[in-house]
Amino acid sequence: MAPKSRKKKAHVSRSLTCYCEGSCPNNVSNGTCETKSSCFSSVQEVYDETTNSYEEERTYGCMPPEDNGGFLMCKVAASQVHGKHIVCCDNEDLCNRNLQPAFTPKLTTPSPDLPVSSESMQTFMLLGSVVMCAFVLTVVLLIVCLIYKRREKQRKPRLINSMCNSQLSPLSQLVEQSSGSGSGLPLLVQRTIAKQIQMVRLVGKGRYGEVWLAKWRDERVAVKTFFTTEEASWFRETEIYQTVLMRHENILGFIAADIKGNGSWTQMLLITDYHEVGSLHDYLSTSVITPQKLQLLAYSFSSGLAHLHDEIFGTPGKPAIAHRDIKSKNILVKRNGQCAIADFGLAVKYMSELDEIHIAQNTRVGTRRYMAPEVLSQALNPQQFEEFKRADMYSVGLVLWEMARRCYTPITGTKTTTCEDYALPYHDVVPSDPSFEDMHAVVCIKGFRPPLPARWQEDDVLATVAKIMQECWHHNPTVRLTALRVKKTLGRLDMDALNDMPMKIV
């Protein structure tokens, strides 16, 4: 009995040599290890960062003597524990070399929690900061845009009401929306409007055409029809009105232009805003004005002409334009008491960058009564654009003289007022339809200018306007004031009474 027991004890205590790989003592790459328990071979899933996938990893080695020589681990050799499959043996040395436990990968293996580096964290924080800043900036811009639009909506009705006593009509809105550059409606829209025009009644007739009151969708418009012999005037005026940045509150508002015909006749149309008060000539013929209204008429007239004369640089830009036919019949009076310059059939354009003066091929000439001395004496140099502007300023002086005559002032020591009868310039020295020779003799040879009544010096506005007109009709063109200087001089006058003045035309 005793020998048998000693033999079993010796067998248990003997050492077993096992093949090791991946689990060797001292972390050697492969080799053997000694154990008093058993050898093992295992397989498990391992995440490979380089391929971004799970791969199998096999390990060979010796079971530790703890826990009864790995007895429990080997008992579950037939199953996978935590993704690891283990097979044990102890029948001979290196018995685990050929053990190949089966590998069955999991279908849904959660990805390992990879450590986040400090560099990745900084990148993430930087990206988050940029996104947050962009979001805050977008919100701020939206708030600013909303505030700006709200203020624009509040400001625009006040401006329109103060100037016109009404909201923009549908036609005006169409023009404002379609002509962002200030050059008028698209041609297709113009032709559509022209076809829908309904003539109402004739309101004026001149040497070059007729002016009609018409309606477009219940809105009143003015339609200027040109005689067939005046095609050049229609073409030139249309071209000027469609110049970029031409629109201005003191220039007649252009709407559309078109040519109609049925084979036997041709009709050329120019459609503009309608101003029921009529021309400055008609208005002054039947009305008298206060000094404040004189100031408003003169200031708005000079504002429109200054915009016309000025060249605007940039993209888009506006050429400088000289009117060449300034007279009271070519100036309209608006309901708010301001002037609007019209009739551009003789206008001249000039672009300083190209140094080109565009003069229309038109046989039509200006109005002799308002012609400057250099035009009457044929001394004007058509190659110098400034000379056309100076000739305009001579005519401005005569128009201001017409305005001033109808401005009434109190008679000293009485409660009554006085003003002169309406009259055309040089009415007392030339016939009603003067010739070139008549005007040349009076203006150039005799050097006559319209007389200035003494009462004009008793009122600040009249005295200022009188001084301006004298400088405008000076015989030497280089001495004459510019339209901008006239505008600034009139603008310096006291505007308090003008702002409080009711806009009703007397």
From TrEMBL:
The chain crosses the membrane at residues 124-148. Residues 197-498 form the Protein kinase domain. It is a single-pass type I membrane protein. It comes from the Eukaryota. Keywords: ATP-binding, Kinase, Magnesium, Membrane, Metal-binding, Nucleotide-binding, Receptor, Serine/threonine-protein kinase, Signal, Transferase, Transmembrane, Transmembrane helix. It holds the Pfam family TGF_beta_GS. Gene3D superfamilies: CD59 (2.10.60.10), Phosphorylase Kinase, domain 1 (3.30.200.20), Transferase(Phosphotransferase) domain 1 (1.10.510.10). It is an enzyme of class 2 (transferase). The keyword Membrane applies. GO terms for molecular function: ATP binding; metal ion binding; transmembrane receptor protein serine/threonine kinase activity. Its EC number is 2.7.11.30. ATP binds at residue 224. GO terms for biological process: cellular response to growth factor stimulus. Residues 166-196 form the GS domain. It is found in: Membrane. InterPro entries: Activin_recp, GS_dom, Kinase-like_dom_sf, Prot_kinase_dom, Protein_kinase_ATP_BS, Ser/Thr_kinase_AS, Snake_toxin-like_sf, TGFB_receptor. Belongs to the protein kinase superfamily. TKL Ser/Thr protein kinase family. TGFB receptor subfamily. This is receptor protein serine/threonine kinase. It comes from Drosophila busckii. The lineage of its organism: Eukaryota, Metazoa, Ecdysozoa, Arthropoda, Hexapoda.
